[in-house]
Specification:
By secondary structure, the chain is an alpha/beta fold. The chain folds into three domains: about 210 residues, FAD/NAD(P)-binding domain (3-Layer(bba) Sandwich), CATH 3.50.50.60; about 110 residues, 3-Layer(bba) Sandwich (FAD/NAD(P)-binding domain); about 100 residues, FAD/NAD-linked reductase, C-terminal dimerisation domain (Enolase-like, domain 1). The strands form seven sheets. The protein has a five-stranded parallel sheet with strand order 3-2-1-7-20, covered by helices on one side. Strands 9-16-10-11-12 form a five-stranded parallel sheet. A five-stranded antiparallel sheet has the order 21-22-25-24-23, with helices on both faces. β4 and β5 form a beta hairpin. The longest helix has 25 residues. The termini are far apart. The model has no long low-confidence stretch (mean pLDDT about 95). The structure holds 1,4-dihydronicotinamide adenine dinucleotide.
């Protein structure tokens, strides 16, 4: 008899796992309280990138003459753009619905709980299953400061649905969401200030790339306040005045809206998880290397286990979890998970950073190639970018690839594959990259590890 699998959550962790489980012959039910697709598709990656795509086109076309274009009276039609965003999202949600149907997966709409017998309860019905997969997702973290409850203090979901483009926006948090929204609204004409607690934006990214992105976004008009803390938000002429403590001074930064983007937390409260025997650590479900929880037969993937809060990590974990649960061999290679930031320039990163290597005391070599010497980057106005390749000193094995520039989020797949295959610097060097492409810079950065990049002056 085929195994019963019940999956709570229809985001990239849950729905991908559902399809894989169905492929392996299981009888699968997905329970989702809202729309299929989860945060990523409905209120995260997909709508944000849709808006960013148009914002970037707009910013590019405004340069008109410099690009050999005559552009008159270019305007943003915010209503049409919002409609386009909804259409893209709706189309993808329908696609998932159709895929689940084609795989004979049952979808139940409702909020599911774990019962004390570790079964799933939804809409008054109890679903028995040999395998339960939790793919519960996450929600924005809130900050508590005076004024935090004012109506213009918003999260990323609300920022995606503003009725008009704000004249000014203060963003608390210079992480991934903070910088993507800064790039978006700056391109659309808002005055944007980012307030970041740490000394650099994007603390988890290679520090050279983070510093360069900050420079580029500053040139585009974003103001960054680092080592800065919001102490209060008060009503003001622009809408609000955000009181920011920067070193010894307190500044008042005006903003029509204040976007809080200081991280996300797993949605694990009030679902009976601990009562069913699961172990939680600060809201994250504790799992082993197969994403199995402390309760046999129950697995947890994606944002709710807090390992890597990325859609593609959730999907890969979902596949690995159901493969393990159904007795199928599975591979989950966390070192190949790319991090991508969809600003202009884009940032993409896979593997270890220099900071990681130093912390872990791993002897390494580094090669950097600036896109100023890459023809395609010049054509695409991406000459401020760079590619950095990090290799193990003894073996030449590729340990990390970090990129800033046009199409970095696409090109990073080469770095991920190199890490997956255990490729060495020689493998990258002897892989022929097409000309003219920005991917040539990966080969050049690899050559730069040995000090012999072709399009760089000799180092000695
Ligand atoms: P994050 O963890 O990336 O960044 C939060 C930032 O807020 C950090 O830089 C932190 O130092 C700062 N911060 C914390 N408390 C603060 C305070 N009181 N005042 C000022 N700054 C403060 O979190 P973020 O940007 O909210 O993103 C949440 C999750 O969503 C992340 O895991 C991210 O990877 C994921 N995501 C991924 C995207 C992508 O892959 N392109 C896009 C959007 C989100």
């Amino acid at each position: 008899m085929c195994k019963q699998v019940v999956i709570i959550g229809g985001g990239p962790g849950g729905y991908v796992a559902a399809i894989r489980a169905a492929q392996l012959g299981a009888s699968v039910t997905v329970v989702e309280q809202e729309r299929l697709g989860g945060t990523c598709l409905n209120i995260g990656c997909i709508p944000t990138k849709t808006l960013l795509h148009t914002a970037e086109l707009y910013r590019t076309l405004l340069k008109g003459k410099a690009l050999g274009l005559k552009v008159d009276n270019l305007q943003i039609d915010w209503t049409a753009l919002q409609n386009r965003k909804k259409n893209v999202v709706n189309r993808l949600v329908k696609g998932i619905e159709a895929l689940l149907k084609a795989n004979h997966i049952t979808v139940k709409t409702g909020r599911a709980y774990l019962t004390d017998k570790a079964a799933v309860a939804v809409n008054g019905e109890e679903l028995s299953a040999e395998v339960i997969l939790l793919a519960l997702g996450s929600e924005p973290m809130r900050l508590s400061f005076p004024g935090a409850d004012l109506p213009g203090v918003i999260d990323s979901t609300q920022a995606l649905n503003l009725e008009t483009i704000p004249k000014s926006l203060v963003i608390i948090g210079g992480g991934v969401i903070g910088v993507e929204f800064a790039a978006l609204f700056c391109s659309l004409g808002s005055e944007v200030t980012v307030v970041e607690l740490a000394a650099q934006i994007l603390p988890a990214i290679d520090s050279e790339l983070a510093a360069k992105l900050r420079q580029d976004l500053s040139r585009q008009g974003v103001t960054f306040l680092t080592e800065a803390k919001v102490t209060a938000v008060e009503d003001g002429e622009a809408g609000y005045n955000v009181k920011v403590a920067v070193q010894d001074k307190v500044e008042a930064v005006p903003g029509e809206y204040v976007l809080v983007a200081v991280g996300r937390r797993p949605c694990t409260a009030g679902l009976g998880l601990a009562e069913a025997g699961l172990v939680l650590d600060r809201g994250r479900i504790v799992v082993d290397q197969h994403f199995a929880t402390a309760v046999p037969g129950i697995y947890a993937v994606g944002d709710c286990n807090g390992q890597r809060m990325l859609a593609h990590a959730a999907s890969a974990q979902g596949v690995a979890a159901v493969e393990h649960a159904l007795g199928h061999p599975s591979i989950y290679c966390a070192s190949t998970i790319p991090s991508c930031i969809y600003t202009t320039p884009e940032v993409a990163s896979v593997g270890l950073t220099e900071e990681d290597l130093q912390e872990q005391d791993i002897a390494y070599q580094s090669g950097t190639f600036g896109l100023i010497a890459n023809g395609k980057a010049l054509i695409e106005e991406g000459q401020t970018g760079l590619v950095k390749v990090l290799t193990e000193a003894d073996t030449g094995k590729v340990l990390g690839v970090h990129m800033l520039g046009p199409h970095a989020t696409e090109l990073i797949a080469e770095g991920a594959l190199a890490i997956r295959m255990g490729a060495t610097i020689e493998d990258l060097i002897t892989t022929i990259h097409a000309h003219p492409t920005i991917s040539e810079a990966i080969g050049e950065a690899a050559l730069a590890v040995k000090g012999v990049a072709i399009h760089l002056p000799p180092t000695r």
